[in-house]
Amino acid sequence: xxxxxxxxxxxxxxxxxxxxxxxxxxxxxxxxxxxxxxxxxxxxxxxxxxxxxxxxxxxxxxxxxxxxxxxxxxxxxxxxxxxxxxxxxxxxxxxxxxxxxxxxxxxxxxxxxxxxxxxxxxxxxxxxxxxxxxxxxxxxxxxxxxxxxxxxxxxxxxxxxxxxxxxxxxxxxxxxxxxxxxxxxxxxxxxxxxxxxxxxxxxxxxxxxxxxxxxxxxxxxxxxxxxxxxxxxxxxxxxxxxxxxxxxxxxxxxxxxxxxxxxxxxxxxxxxxxxxxxxxxxxxxx
Length: 286
Prior knowledge:
The chain is about 35% helix and about 15% strand.
């Protein structure tokens, strides 16, 4: 059995590493993002659409991690998109703005615009506008959790058709996410600093400590973490899960014993490599 599992992991690793042409990237705001400080790539939030060849109607906006100071676009972006495509899910990898050049709410604006864009253009992308989720890793998990707890129904009077669409994700997937900004023992301080600066307003800090922002309207959520994660302690996922449970929101939490922070799909680890399968099962039930 162990040899069989090892062979599956090896095959999965080969799948993750096979060369695939990069899809064309498009900006979220063709005429420039609100609050943009320039016209370089770092000032232009954008989506890379990875459309499934055999789509099941689901779509996911993918937010790579990087402490709000960088983007792990390979193992938490491209590889994730390819795996989602293998499940029939179209993926849209988000390039969001980063600190310290940008602060909140630029990152949230980018994530909300991404969700609105996919929903408004659902027919073009061959996806169901009621089956659009968000998935994030580490600080990208914080951004995804923020989008799942801070959203609106859209502006029906907006001239821009995209702004008329809801920014609420229909489900969320959080992988070793940064969640809390107020429980000091568990805070990833680099993410908080890059997002909010050195001395942010305590009320703003509390509002973006996302376990505090969960409500009955928060979408169903899948969480994955490892007990050995010293970069972002697993209590971040636990706090969010408990808040979801308190408010009656469907949720599933997996905490593995071993594994460092930032494992992505974890193809090289026999035990951790099972987490995408658990996610696939969960997504099929959504």
